[in-house]
Structures are given as structure tokens and as C-alpha cells.
Design goal:
Chain lengths: ~110, ~110
């Protein structure tokens, strides 16, 4: 069974540009989460999808971030426009019915 | 969510047992204790979860005293590949709470030959 995959693994963009991160959860996992670690800080929760619905987006830092999960399968996280402080590693995780979250390898975002 | 406190780092040697204690004085009745492991350039990986007493799986054991204000993750006979950051998380794992995870700083474990 394939694990959680994320694309791209690394993205380097300039301030003001737009970047879209993609997460493919484990097939059949209704729950999908986005987290991020910015430089020197702890991993922080961003939002939680149940199927295609946003269950909790309390961790989204501001309206420059937009997450979608059309059809309840893969999810995208768009940052527009990107700022320097958005640099960090963005993790996606998925969960089935129990408490274990399966994390992807992360996307390292560098904003110059 | 309950705040957790754990050592910043620990060193050990191959074949030894590693015990990492996490303090969570404000743990709530509905909170579970979960440990994740993270290797460099990878996402965190679930190790073990418990509510009270002792839980054991093929990877680790989790000891939780009666007052649940702390917990100890025990890794038996570590190898070099167990070098990683270990996170202690405390939170409500119910569906209504969403199961979102709150990470602290973690404990960086270095296993030496």
C-alpha cells in the first residue's frame, strides 16, 4: 500500500509568487491534515479535511493560504502571494478510522 | 491542549534501553498520550499511544502512572537507526476534537556505536 505522497519535494520561489503544494493521502483515508514547520519552530497544525469538507482550519495563518480537497481525494495548499516567513516544511498526513496519522515526507518551501 | 515537557536531547549506545520521560501536568480526562518518531527529511511516524497504565507494541513500551501527569517511552535495545527526534503529544483523540496533533520541541536521541 502506497503511503502519503507530497509534491514537489522542494520548491524555491521568490517573494510575491504563487506556489501550490499537493498531497495524495493513503487511499480510503477520509481525514487529511496539513501541518508546517517554519524555521526554528515546532510543527504546527494548519487544517483538517474530512473527505472534501474543511473540518478545522483554525491553524491557517492568514488568507494568503488556501487549501482545497475537491472530490475528497488529493489536496492542494496554495500560497499566494508567498512571503519570506512562509519558508519551511509543509507536511500532509492522512488518517483512517483510528488515531494514527500517516505523514508524508513533506515539501520544503523556500521563499527568497 | 495540555502542554508537554520533555528533554531536549539524550545520548545512548547501541543495545541499551532508552527511556524518555514526558511531563504533562495539565492533561485532561479525554486526552490520550501519543508518541511520534521523526527521522531527518521525513515526516513524523506514529510509534505508540496510550491512555493509562502500560502499552506495549513491537517497537516500544509506554508507561503511564495513575495520575497521568507524566509518561515514559521505552525503546528496548536501540540501534543506530533509532537516532531520531521523538515527540510526546497529548490531546483529545475523539472524532469531535478532530484528532489534530500538537507538537512540542521533541527529544533528539542520538545512538552511538
Amino acid at each position: 500500500e502506497a503511503g502519503v505522497t507530497q509534491f514537489p519535494s522542494h520548491s524555491v520561489i521568490e517573494k510575491g509568487q504563487t506556489v501550490t503544494l499537493r498531497c495524495d493521502p493513503i487511499s480510503g483515508h477520509d481525514n487529511l491534515y496539513w501541518y508546517r514547520r517554519v524555521m526554528g519552530k515546532e510543527i504546527k497544525f494548519l487544517l483538517h479535511f474530512v473527505k472534501e469538507s474543511k473540518q478545522d482550519e483554525s491553524g491557517m495563518p492568514n488568507n494568503r493560504f488556501l487549501a482545497e480537497r475537491t472530490g475528497g481525494t488529493y489536496s492542494t495548499l496554495k500560497v499566494q502571494p508567498a512571503e519570506l516567513e512562509d519558508s519551511g516544511v509543509y507536511f500532509c498526513a492522512s488518517r483512517a478510522w483510528n488515531n494514527e496519522q500517516f505523514f508524508g515526507p513533506g515539501t520544503r518551501l523556500t521563499v527568497l | 491542549l495540555a502542554k508537554t515537557t520533555q528533554p531536549i536531547s539524550m545520548d545512548s549506545y547501541e543495545g541499551q534501553e532508552v527511556n524518555i520521560t514526558c511531563s504533562h501536568n495539565n492533561i485532561a480526562t479525554n486526552d490520550y498520550i501519543t508518541w511520534y518518531q521523526q527521522f531527518p527529511s521525513q515526516g513524523p511516524r506514529f510509534i505508540i499511544q496510550g491512555y493509562k497504565t502500560k502499552v506495549t507494541n513491537e517497537v516500544a513500551s509506554l508507561f503511564i502512572p495513575a495520575d497521568r501527569k507524566s509518561s515514559t517511552l521505552s525503546l528496548p535495545r536501540v540501534s543506530l537507526s533509532d537516532t531520531a527526534v521523538y515527540y510526546c503529544l497529548v490531546g483529545d483523540m475523539g472524532e469531535a476534537a478532530g484528532n489534530k496533533l500538537t507538537f512540542g520541541g521533541g527529544t533528539r536521541v542520538l545512538v552511538k556505536p
